[in-house]
Design a protein that fits this description.
Two copies of one chain form a homodimer. The first copy, chain A, is α/β, with parallel strands linked by helices and 414 residues long. In chain A, the strands form four sheets. Chain A has a six-stranded mixed β-sheet with strand order 2-1-3-8-7-6, sandwiched between helices. In chain A, a hairpin with a 2-residue loop joins strand 10 and strand 11. In chain A, helix 2 packs parallel to helix 6, helix 3 packs across helix 4 and helix 7 runs antiparallel to helix 8. Strand 2 of chain A pairs antiparallel with strand 2 of chain B, so a sheet runs across the interface.
Chain lengths: 414, 414
């Protein structure tokens, strides 16, 4: 079953808004064994006609988002009716619902709003309790002037808060009827940190392909996602290969980021965390505090950018900094231990490095970093890395390696 | 000039990753008077062939992102060569750069990496200092078996940290050559903070349109960019309108982010900064430390997430927290003053708020935040806002308002 998505909207085209619709629809139909084969974005207005006509030749199902509203560039409904030779009719039930909505909010309405209550009798109305414009579902219909039938066409609202419940509550059940026998293919994914993309492929690529699995890689700074797609029995064999070869480099098989895993592990282990950040400049604290529930385990972060702050806030001896430099093994150690002492946390990590462009020496080139981890009743450990890259990627890479120290530390302790 | 974008990547198709490429490219070519007319996403692999062939009939310029890496699903280069009848050759210079990159990082490389050094003689190499795979530019070439020439084709890397600098430094200058007439119009942009998009439009929209200028708005959390396009003489009149109506809400007319303006202003004023972050969780420190030169002015950031940390690190009296709550005017004030005292900085800002989902009350709903600014020899000021939104947007909005306090404070003092 071939599925395509058409997103309409000048604001997406101009780059003002990220397109989250494709991801939402893909995730929603994936459990039915269905996948989107192609997606297109077109501006509001007539461009949607060309994009839609093209899908008639290729697709079994087309999801169109946007263009159902009351403004002059919202013409998706009209275009579909024109292509299929259908006539729009006023739907009093929809109109009453729209008016009730406006009245409830005390918003005045004008005649253009009434357009949203128009649809042809051939389309099924998809109720929209979160907005005024309902969605529409068109079953396959004869295309005038041709011998073919149209694909199943869904016209869906653009605002995510309207689209998401409509997809979950109405579109997915309809898709289950339309595609009852969709192939029982499954996907498993493995998120890893600590290995490069080509190293991951070297370790598992051949044996997975030999099993007949579809294999995909996605690399981001400091992590590589691995995905395998196939029949469940084969996936089990594939997973065994992956677990044997990648072992503890895998940090999760769901969609959580590394910091989500770290926060969950700390909550489960009832351990608290503090951070002493120099070169990462608050990036690790920010990642941790993006996770709901972080307040249970995160006590404090110290962004000790200046040397004086390392001394005043974390108690790093000024002589230590003078003797070894701020980017050094002893200073990283003292920062982590100072953060633990100052906050009273069970675990503290520290980062000190040279993000560049300035601040380097021959002995310590740009990208040099020391990560330290101090754990209650354990010896503090310090690790040196070299990440010669741009400033923001450097922060990412240092954060990943530092967070991974916490993950591995908590995993070992439990 | 018709421009299309093809994004390749199974991870985008499957909904694992949001597509930010279209927005980046659209914004980059907008100042040349160019716009993307259509965008398609296809999975890794052969689907890119069909998508590309279709654009040959319609487009003058095609940007393709992704599929240049070393893994088996990275076959964009091969497909373009096959379509245009070109032969790939080993490029020793690229290969040396790739090896140098691997050696610098001490990462072992394998034979697949070598594929990234292949390209046909007809393509121009776009250097990629932020990754291994270079981009490629194909000028219009005869399409075998047809009478037509191919569009200008750009093959660009998928990772944003590689794509963005390549677009800025190499693609935009090339596009200026390809579309010189389009660049005859001039663009001026104004970045504002503190006003909503519809308020900005209400203030300047009509008079600018009356001047015959093309007007564009781009809203992000906490800021609105305003762009006007037209002939220089008319732009002067438009700029006068904008400056009169928007005044100090404009923080820059270049592309620097607000934190870049704040760091530059502090450096110019020879003032130092400290941060006390609760609800922003290190996000402001991270923004500041993304700016090269931040170490000149940024002394320390305190991410005092737990109440105990507010007391231990910043000296906020425990009774004050008990009496007023951590999210309150007096605690914000004490945090800012504590951060200034602890760090010795000239200026300190503090944020304390309720990001949600938990922690709210009827009196203090989710989204409530207090920002404080403490300045040497001045009275500390506290501002209350309400940003009822998701966790990450909340952080953005609080950071913008807090940074703007610093910007306005330094601007007033100088």
């Amino acid at each position: 079953m071939r599925i395509e998505v058409i997103n309409t909207g000048t604001e997406i085209m101009l780059g003002n808004v990220l397109n989250s619709h494709l991801g939402y629809l893909s995730n929603a139909i994936f459990p039915l064994g269905l996948r989107v084969q192609r997606q297109a974005t077109v501006p509001d207005g007539d461009a949607i006609r060309d994009a839609l006509v093209e899908t008639f030749e290729r697709a079994d199902v087309v999801f169109v988002t946007g263009g159902l509203g009351p403004t002059t560039d919202d013409i998706t409904r009209e275009i579909v009716c024109e292509l299929l030779g259908l006539t729009m009719q006023h739907d009093e039930e929809i109109w009453q619902a729209i008016m009730a909505r406006f009245n409830r909010r005390g918003i005045p309405w004008n005649d253009r709003v009434k357009l949203q209550a128009l649809h042809p009798a051939e389309a099924r109305v998809l109720q929209n309790p979160h907005g005024t414009a309902p969605g529409l579902y068109f079953p396959p219909l004869p295309v005038p002037g041709t011998a073919m039938k149209s694909p199943h066409i869904f016209l869906l609202p653009g605002p995510p808060r309207e689209l998401h419940p409509m997809v979950d509550n109405l579109v997915v059940p309809l898709m289950r009827e339309i595609a009852p026998a969709a192939a029982a293919h499954e996907l498993r994914s493995f998120r890893t940190t600590g290995l490069g993309e080509s190293r991951v492929e070297e370790l598992v690529g051949e044996p997975l392909l030999a099993l007949g699995l579809e294999v995909g890689y996605c690399a981001r700074p400091g992590e590589v996602d691995l995905r395998i797609i196939g029949a469940p029995a084969v996936l089990d064999q594939g997973e065994a290969v992956i677990r044997q070869k990648l072992g503890t480099f895998i940090f999760t098989t769901d969609t959580r980021p590394l910091e989500g895993i770290v926060v969950a592990a700390l909550i489960a282990a009832k351990k608290t965390l503090a951070l002493a950040e120099s070169c990462t400049g608050g990036w690790i604290a920010n990642k941790i505090t993006n996770i709901a529930g972080a307040s249970e385990i995160f006590l404090a972060g110290y962004v000790t950018y200046a040397n004086a702050a390392k001394t005043r806030t974390l108690g790093v001896p000024a002589e230590l900094i003078a003797e070894h430099g701020a980017v050094s093994e002893p200073v990283a150690r003292a920062m982590a231990e100072g953060a633990r002492a100052q906050s009273g946390a069970d675990i503290a990590i520290a980062t000190t490095g040279i993000a560049g462009p300035g601040g380097c020496s021959e002995e310590k080139p740009v990208g040099t970093v020391f990560n330290a981890i101090a754990v209650r009743d354990a010896e503090t450990r310090v690790f040196k890395h070299l990440f010669p890259t741009d400033r923001e990627t450097f922060k990412h890479l240092v954060a990943q390696t530092a967070l991974d120290l916490v993950r591995r530390s908590v995993a070992c302790a439990t």
